[in-house]
Specification:
4-stranded mixed beta sheet, 6 helices
Length: 223
């Protein structure tokens, strides 16, 4: 699948980079007990770690808040998805198990402190551009409401925007019927290419161990 970063985005945020993973012939189902247990224990561990810390001091949270501010979005009003997960954990509003793909997304988003999106590839049409959203762009998100995408980083295909590190759209949501998926890891720009590659490969390996299928990954962006 052809994916490119817009010039506006890379000029505004030097060293912007993303991990891209494509999966084929996967099985999305209820998470195995191992994953459910790891997700729960990890959230409990984070909760205790956060007791004496300000959430916005976490490096990944801090870096992505700065990115939102740079694109023109108030990070206090529009919290990136990784920060939203951490805020839930801090309130002991732990994430329930949904299904294997979403649970893995949430686990790695908490682990690496970055937004991660996973999309049903069969509902994506044509090449994808990662760019900054326009004034009149919006979509119905997984939060159940219409979301303005103005000045947010978005992923868009021929049909328009479908993903963002803020909230993803309903149109390309992964379900238990999904067979082919695209995963986008919104890496911290400060991450080295070597570490970015390791992180992306680690996520891909665990995903295919649980969901099967074939996969390939690569990085977008540069040092």
């Amino acid at each position: 699948m052809e994916i490119q970063l817009s010039t506006e985005l890379t000029e505004l945020i030097p060293h912007f980079k993303m991990g891209v993973i494509e999966y084929q012939n996967i099985i999305v189902e209820d998470s195995p007990q191992m994953l459910k247990g790891r997700l729960q224990l990890f959230q409990e561990s984070i909760y205790f770690d956060l007791e004496d810390h300000n959430l916005t001091e976490i490096p990944g949270i801090q870096e992505w808040r700065a990115i939102f501010k740079k694109t023109g979005k108030d990070p206090n009003r529009y919290r990136h998805s990784a920060e939203a997960l951490f805020r839930r954990v801090k309130k002991q509003n732990y994430l329930p198990s949904i299904q294997s793909a979403t649970d893995l997304n949430n686990f790695f988003s908490l682990k690496y402190q970055v937004p991660i999106g996973v999309y049903d590839m069969d509902f994506i049409e044509g090449p994808i551009e990662i760019r900054i959203g326009g004034e009149n762009e919006e979509y119905i998100g997984l939060n159940g409401r219409s979301n303005s995408l103005n000045r947010l980083i978005i992923s868009a295909d021929h049909k328009g925007p479908f993903g963002s590190p803020f909230v993803d759209s309903e149109r390309t949501a992964v379900t238990k019927n999904t067979k082919n998926a695209l995963q986008l890891i919104y890496l911290r720009p400060s991450t080295s290419l070597e570490e970015a590659k390791k992180l992306t490969e680690s996520l891909m390996t665990m995903f295919t161990q649980i969901s099967g299928g074939e996969s390939k990954c690569y990085l977008l962006g540069s040092e």
